[in-house]
Design goal:
24% strand, Alpha-Beta Plaits, single chain, 4 helices, 221 residues, 5-stranded antiparallel sheet, two-stranded antiparallel sheet
Length: 221
């Protein structure tokens, strides 16, 4: 027969288990209240955040006569006013740019192709006639609703020269008629016609002249 004697008093006895049950119970008593406290604080913070957001939305929104929530009138009016103001500013910028573009297109479309016009004029000058001076002038034609006149550029060409021989007068008149018949020319006239008094000229036959050509108006469009 074998005997086993436990010399430890009850207060000195310890459990041989890996986990101390009494310690776990004590920790549980502390952890559970702490966790509940943390959850409670988190809930209070969330509640305060939601209440703050609710107050902000209530200040921005309100109920109309039918009890429907609508955006606050002053805030809505400010938003609409800002949007309208920005739209008006954009429209102003677009209109200014459009006016500038139309102006540039008008100048481009109303320009005279002088290399073509002068080439056609030179082709009509007879061999007996010499062009001594050429001057180009321009003026603006303003719109007029009464006469249905549109904005346009009016070009005028002044030719000064001399013609030799017995047919000088006829040659000058023929040149004027030919210039008037050009597609780009509206009219041609002879404002001056005189005897050529320059040195070496035949005053009985040679003549000096001035021809003015008014071109077809070049519209701004």
């Amino acid at each position: 027969m074998s005997l086993q004697v436990n010399l430890l008093i009850p207060s000195e006895q310890r459990s041989a288990a890996p986990v101390n049950l009494k310690l776990m119970i004590r920790l549980a008593y502390l952890a559970v209240p702490a966790a509940l406290l943390l959850f409670g604080l988190a809930g209070v913070v969330d509640l305060m955040t939601l209440k703050s957001e609710l107050n902000r939305l209530e200040r921005k929104w309100g109920k109309n006569a039918e009890g429907v929530w609508v955006v606050d009138e002053p805030d809505r009016h400010r938003t609409l006013f800002r949007g309208l103001e920005m739209a008006q500013q954009e429209q102003g910028v677009i209109k200014r740019n459009d006016d500038i573009l139309k102006e540039l297109r008008g100048w481009k479309n109303s320009r005279m192709h002088w290399h073509v016009a002068l080439s056609n004029i030179c082709a009509e000058v007879p061999p007996s006639t010499q062009i001594l001076n050429l001057m180009i002038s321009q003026k603006m034609q303003l719109p007029d609703q009464r006469t249905k006149q549109v904005r346009a550029r009016l070009f005028e060409l002044t030719l000064k020269g001399k013609a030799k021989g017995r047919t000088a007068k006829q040659d000058i008149e023929t040149l004027s008629d030919r210039l008037a018949g050009l597609e780009s020319v509206a009219s041609a006239s002879i404002p001056s016609f005189d005897v050529d008094s320059s040195q070496g000229a035949n005053q009985d036959e040679d003549r000096v002249f001035t021809i003015k050509c008014s071109f077809v108006p070049r519209e701004f469009k």
